[in-house]
Amino acid sequence: MSLTVDRLTRTFNGMTAIKDIDLKVQNGEFVCLLGKGGCGKSTLLRTLSGLDLDYEGTVSYNATPLTGVREEIGIIFQESRLLPWLTVLENIRFGLKDHEQETLNRVNRFIEYVGLTGKEKLYPKALSGGMSQRAAIARSLVCDPEVLLLDEPFSALDHFTKLELQDLLLKIQAKYNTTMVMVTHDIDEALYLADRIVVLSSQPGMIKDIIDINSPRQRTRTSQDLQQVKKEILTILHV
Amino acid sequence: MAKEVNQSIYPTIQLNKIGVTPLIKRLMISSVFPVIIILIWEVLSQIGVFESYQLPAPSAVLFKGIALYQSGELLPHIVATFTRVTIGFVFGTGAAVILSVLVGFWPLLEKFIDPTIQALRQIPSLAWVPLFILWMGIGETSKVTMIAVGVFFPVYLNLLAGIVTVDRKWLEVGKVFGLSKRSQITKIILPAVLPSFFTGIRTGLGLGFMFVVAAELMGASEGLGYLLVLGQNTLQPDTILVSIILFAIIGKVTDGGLKLVEQRLLHWQDTEIRGRSK
C-alpha cells in the first residue's frame, strides 16, 4: 500500500484552501495532520478519500491516480454518521455486500472487538457519542480497509472516552497493520498516536514541517520526550 | 425517571395507581376540556340562553344523530364521504409521489416542471371547482378529482423538499461504502425522506376532508357535506351539527391511524414526544 500526494492544491471559489502539498504515506504508518482550525486539513483528508476530486495535482493510491472512493480506503468522520434508521448491527454491516454466515461472524467479531456487545439491537439515538464512534469504526473495519482516514474523529468526545478510543486505534493498528491518516488539532493526541506529524500552516494550508516521532509504542502521554516535541510544534505554529 | 417527572407535572392526577394504562390516562386527561365545554353548552341551552333553532343543546344533537342512524340514513352518508376521500387521497398521493420523485431525481425535470407546479399551487384549489364541474359534470369524478388536487400539493411539496434536502453527510456514507445508485435510493434516500412523506400525507388527508366538504356542498345527493346543505335548507341546525361532529371524529380517527403507522415506521427518530415515555 502506498498513498502519494503530489503538488496538491485545492481552491474554493478562488480561495486557496491547501497549496502545494507533497506527502507520501507508507504502509502501516500512522500519520497525523496537525494544524489550527480552518487550515485545510479536512480538505486534504477529503481529497485522499476520493470524495473530493476537484483539485489540482495528483493523489495516487498504489501508483494509480485516485478517481473516486475505493474499498481499500475507509473514512471516519467527526460525527459517527450512523444511519439513524438502522440498528447498530445493521449499521456496522452496512458496507458489506453479502449476508452470509461467515460475513455475519466477522461482523460479530468486530462488534466484540470495539466493545459494543449487547448493543447490537439499539438504534443510534440510544448511543452515547463514544459508542457511536465505536460503531463507526467497526463499520469501516468490517470492510477490511488498508487505509483508515480519520477526520477529527474524537474531537466531540469527552476526555476519557477520547483516551479510550485512541488506545482502540493503536490496538487496531497493531493487529491489522492498518495505515492511518488522522486529522487533529489536538497536539497531545498527535504525539500519542503518530509515527509522523505533518504540521500545516493556515490560509492557505501548506506543509510547515514534518516531525518524526521515534518514541516506541506504549507511549506515556506525559513523557519528557513528547513534551519536548510539543514545545517544538507550538513554536512552529507560533502559539 | 420519566414517571417521576410526569407525576411532578400533574401532582393531583395519579391515575396509574389504580391500574390505568398510560393511553387511557391520556384520553381521560384530554377529554376533560371538551366535557366541560359540552356541559356548559348544555346548561346554557337548557336555561334558554341559546335559542334551539340556532344552537340546539348537545343532547338534542346526540338524539338527532341516533335518530338518523336508526332510520338508516346516516351510514350511507358516512360511507359516501369516506369513500370519496379515500379514492381522492390515493390518487392525489400517487400522483404526488410519482411527480416529486421524478422532479427530485432529475434536475432538468425540476427546472422544467417544478416552476409550473409552484405556480399552480398559488391557485386556491377551490377555484378549480367550476371548471371541474364543467368538464366532468357533477358526479363522482369531479368530486374525487377535487379531493385529489387538494391532497396532491402538500404531499408533493413535502416529499420533494425531503428528497432534495437529504443530508449530504448520509449520501457520503453511501458513497464511501460504494453503494450503487439504486442502493443509494433504497437504503439512504427513501428512509431519509419518510418523515417528510408522513408530514405530507397527514396534511394532505386534512385537506382531503376540506375538499370533500366543498365538493359535496356544490352538489351531491349523499355524503356528510350533503347533510350540511340539507340541514341548512330544512332549518335543522342539529343535522348540521351532527355532520360537523362526525367530520371531527372521522378526521381525528383517520389522522390517528396515519400517526400510528408513522410512529411505527419512524420509531428510530430522535425526537422527544412530550409527556410520553419512550
TrEMBL record, chain A:
SUPFAM superfamilies the record matches: P-loop containing nucleoside triphosphate hydrolases
InterPro entries xrefs: AAA+_ATPase (IPR003593), ABC_transporter-like_ATP-bd (IPR003439), ABC_transporter-like_CS (IPR017871), ABC_transporter_ATP-bind (IPR050166), P-loop_NTPase (IPR027417)
GO molecular function terms noted in the UniProt entry: ATP binding; ATP hydrolysis activity
One Pfam family from the record: ABC_tran
Gene3D superfamilies: P-loop containing nucleotide triphosphate hydrolases
Keywords carried by this UniProt record: ATP-binding, Nucleotide-binding, Translocase, Transport
Name this protein carries in UniProt: Aliphatic sulfonates import ATP-binding protein SsuB
Organism: Halolactibacillus miurensis
UniProtKB/TrEMBL annotation, chain B:
Domain ABC transmembrane type-1: 74-258
GO cellular component, one term: plasma membrane
Keyword rRNA-binding in record: no
Broad class of the protein's primary localization: membrane
Keywords, sorted A to Z: Cell membrane, Membrane, Transmembrane, Transmembrane helix, Transport
Membrane topology term: Multi-pass membrane protein
InterPro entries given in the database record: MetI-like, MetI-like_sf
Localization in the cell: Cell membrane
Annotated GO biological process: alkanesulfonate transmembrane transport; cellular response to sulfur starvation
Pfam families, sorted: BPD_transp_1 (PF00528)
Transmembrane segments: 27-49, 85-108, 120-138, 144-167, 235-254
Family: Belongs to the binding-protein-dependent transport system permease family.
Listed name of the protein: Sulfonate transport system permease protein
Species of origin: Halolactibacillus miurensis
